[in-house]
Amino acid sequence: MIPIFVLFLIYSTAFCARVPVCDSTNSNNSFIYCEGPILEAVNYHQLYNDSKTFVDMPMKQNPQDVLNAFNLKFQNSTAPEKINKTDLQTFIDQYFSAAGTELIQCVPDDWKEKPEKLATIKDPQLREWAYKLNGIWKQLCRKIDPSIEQHNSRYSLLYVPHHFIIPGGRFREFYYWDAYWIVKGLIASEMYNTTRSMIRNLATMVNTHGFVPNGGRVYYLQRSQPPFLSAMVYELYEATNDKDFIAELLPTLKKELDFWDQNRMINVTMDNKTYKLYQYKTASNVPRPESYRVDTENSAKFGNDTARQQQFYQDIASAAESGWDFSTRWFSDHLTISTIETTNVIPVDLNGLVCWNMDILEYLYEQVGDMDNSETFRSRRADFRNSVHNVFYNKTDGTFYDYNVRSKSHNANFYTSTAVPLFTNCYNTMNTGIVQKTFDYMDRMGAFTYPSGIPTSMIQNSEEQWDFPNGWSPNNHMIIEGLRKSANPEMQDQGFEIASKWVLGNFKVFYETGHMWEKYNVIGSYPQPGSGGEYDVQDGFGWTNGAILDLLLTYNDRLFVPDNFINTTSTSTTSTTTSSSVQTTTSSTTKTVASFSVLLFTLLVWIFV
Ligand SMILES: *[C@@H]1O[C@H](CO)[C@@H](O)[C@H](O)[C@H]1NC(C)=O
Ligand SMILES: *[C@@H]1O[C@H](CO)[C@@H](O)[C@H](O)[C@H]1NC(C)=O
Ligand SMILES: *[C@@H]1O[C@H](CO)[C@@H](O)[C@H](O)[C@H]1NC(C)=O
Ligand SMILES: *[C@@H]1O[C@H](CO)[C@@H](O)[C@H](O)[C@H]1NC(C)=O
Ligand SMILES: *[C@@H]1O[C@H](CO)[C@@H](O)[C@H](O)[C@H]1NC(C)=O
Ligand SMILES: *[C@@H]1O[C@H](CO)[C@@H](O)[C@H](O)[C@H]1NC(C)=O
Ligand SMILES: *[C@@H]1O[C@H](CO)[C@@H](O)[C@H](O)[C@H]1NC(C)=O
Ligand SMILES: *[C@@H]1O[C@H](CO)[C@@H](O)[C@H](O)[C@H]1NC(C)=O
Ligand SMILES: *[C@@H]1O[C@H](CO)[C@@H](O)[C@H](O)[C@H]1NC(C)=O
Ligand SMILES: *[C@@H]1O[C@H](CO)[C@@H](O)[C@H](O)[C@H]1NC(C)=O
């Protein structure tokens, strides 16, 4: 007879504890939306092409009644292949409503047709476009019926009290890091109340769950996203100078940073010194319900090796926490998803962002007169900035790279994340060489040579959406802002050039397709909506619109649409008015003068350096 403890040993080496994406500690319906026989059967029979559809469907009865009815109808079957697909569809139609029907479209109370700030955009075509993007806020505004707060167990939705702006498409609830660029756009549209509402919703999450989940559904309760909440509060404060609001939010911002300190910190030893850094690492090690089918298909490669499968699921969900789902950044062979090892990667962008959080907290505490806390974060940031420099900065190549704790080396491939420490000022500003070198590195990598913006990486054929040839709003916006905020005129000019390419590329696609997209293919003379990854490209789109509105304002007197830039015979969304074509002539003259002075200036700098 085998002693019990030996059995236990065999068991515990074969299986790590299974950690679902939600459970009875944080949701009353985890056996419907996060795991269980219904989720498995629906995905096995592929009732919906996108796994996310089912987990966004509200129930018509309480979760336990729905599960009981399922067990009764299908004789407690845990084997989905024994279930009849037609009967399953009938059951789902009987007990569930259509995806997303618990969200109500709304018009934000502070929305207006022609915000004054947007009137300062000089180019008439760009100004008209800005008004159209401003109009899209009404299509993307959602609120949750307050009665749902009482009966929340019938929904996968996480209840939030105020209205908010969604990204769009399959992303029908609130999302975390998207909200930063949405907020930038709302501020451009002078929608300060809606900005406050969005921030307060995210603060509700910190106060009930201890952190901001990836998005507003129970199946996101084991992972966050790049921490931009403090940055949203900072941007709103810069726009409104509202000290009461920062005083209200500061305890929440501090609490959110505690989450990263307590759950996402790792000790990294390099050259005999140990640094405390941050990584994306969720505890969950099961398929993501919203991508259940894709995840289980991808893990089939590991056969019956349960431990390996669990590791795969954890690395997949951790990459989803990074916002870059998926990218060769997380793959050990830098090409195929089955080699994913997110939990071995210490990401330069996350650490650059945490550094910014400390900087913002120092500043906001100082603004409300709390000098003790301000000083705490000043000194934490000073130390942390050195850690970021020592671990991520590669002296040979003169840039910042992710660090891999398994291989104990940098990932020396180009990714747009290299520029995040510039965007967040996470370097010693006396050391201007660092900025110049990072800029030179991006230049050497050919990052500035594409017609419609900067691609996420130079790695082709991965078919992942966060790689070549896709360019994304957050990355392009952060690079532009990092260069613009530098003290170097050459870099500031390159920032403007990228802004011009990105804005005009988005503009062209808008006139061709009538939509704003979540990502763009930046190569070729004609940009396209991006592609690749696990779902079709989505339109809407919150962060795209936000980044464009912000850039249109930042460069309101410098951005112009060149003559004959858009094919007016194929415009699907608007007709060019006579007044705007007259104006375009003046605009392009201004632009010629502007680029000539840039050229002259570059020449002078070159002669004198
Ligand atoms: C679960 O339901 C109970 C009773 O309806 C409620 O008191 C509790 O707050 C709910 N828990 C969650 C996490 O929603
Ligand atoms: C599901 O995908 C298949 C194959 O890609 C496609 O033919 C079908 O139209 C899709 N169905 C829906 C409802 O989108
Ligand atoms: C299903 O399981 C429940 C509880 O375990 C049991 O009471 C019931 O008889 C089972 N039903 C069928 C059809 O097997
Ligand atoms: C599934 O059930 C339907 C009736 O609900 C029946 O017409 C069909 O033949 C069944 N399919 C299979 C493969 O058993
Ligand atoms: C913004 O909110 C404040 C306070 O709730 C309210 O008094 C004001 O009317 C709102 N402004 C707009 C433009 O809706
Ligand atoms: C890092 O090292 C310190 C000791 O220097 C230890 O207290 C802490 O628990 C370690 N953190 C992690 C995440 O391992
Ligand atoms: C690290 O420490 C070991 C032993 O303490 C020493 O031999 C080695 O030279 C040190 N390495 C560096 C890079 O300082
Ligand atoms: C897993 O499958 C392999 C062959 O595919 C087999 O040799 C092995 O015994 C299986 N392991 C377990 C634990 O079932
Ligand atoms: C820095 O980059 C060079 C060239 O890409 C590489 O050989 C070197 O190993 C990197 N340094 C570290 C610490 O990884
Ligand atoms: C402009 O669009 C029309 C209609 O789609 C097309 O026939 C024509 O070739 C396009 N012209 C250019 C220069 O792209």
TrEMBL record:
Organism's domain of life? Eukaryota
Q: What class of enzyme is it?
A: hydrolase
Q: Which GO terms describe its molecular function?
A: alpha,alpha-trehalase activity
A biological process from GO: trehalose catabolic process
Q: Which residues form the signal peptide?
A: 1-16
Xref: InterPro entries: 6-hairpin_glycosidase_sf (IPR008928), 6hp_glycosidase-like_sf (IPR012341), Glyco_hydro_37 (IPR001661), Glyco_hydro_37_CS (IPR018232)
- In short, the EC number is 3.2.1.28
Alphabetic keyword roster? Glycosidase, Hydrolase, Signal
User: Which reaction does this chain catalyze?
Assistant: alpha,alpha-trehalose + H2O = alpha-D-glucose + beta-D-glucose
For this chain, the family text in UniProt reads:
Belongs to the glycosyl hydrolase 37 family.
Protein name, entry field: Trehalase
Origin organism is: Caenorhabditis angaria
The organism's lineage? Eukaryota, Metazoa, Ecdysozoa, Nematoda, Chromadorea
